[in-house]
Amino acid sequence: MRRFTIATVVTALLLPAGAEQARAVQRLIDVRQVATDTLRDVALAVFEHGRPVIYYNPGLLQQFGPNLTTFFFAHEYGHVRFGHTGAALVTGESDPSAIRQRQELEADCYAARTLAESDPAAVGAAIRFFTRLGPFRFDAWHPSGSQRAAKILACMPSDPENPTASSDSTSASHIPVTQPQSAAAPLDAPPT
After folding, report:
1. In degrees to the nearest 10, what's the CA dihedral of 179, 182, 184, 189?
2. pLDDT tens digits for 39-61?
């Protein structure tokens, strides 16, 4: 499977940004991607020695097809963008699963906003996939499919001329990521 890369827009780097925005951009530039067939999930973003790494399972991703693969990678870049790590769980909140679910929804929102204009088919595939999951959730750390589909829809840009504007007031600005290439798969196809 071909190695995925991140593309940043030069103008985004030239815009005035606060220290946190600059650190977020740097994290996105420094992402390393590692394929491993031992991962039990499609992908996982972690920070190792202060550097973001996305581990992904190429075999599992192949089952989902190129559109969902693109969405899932943008989702993982969302975790990197927002600095979601295990350390975020010690924020004083008493329910770690609620924190992780919120992080998952933030990463979904990032992916939806990032891909809305450049790859709407990937966003549509994610909405269909999560809608089909309905009340099912993979584990206590992930929201239900219905919750994820609703969040993705809420985060879609409300102004096609301004993809950073969305109906979700909690979403932050995004940095576009490239679209991974993968073989087609049945979970990716729109319903017939």
Report:
1. -30
2. 999 999 999 988 899 999 999 99
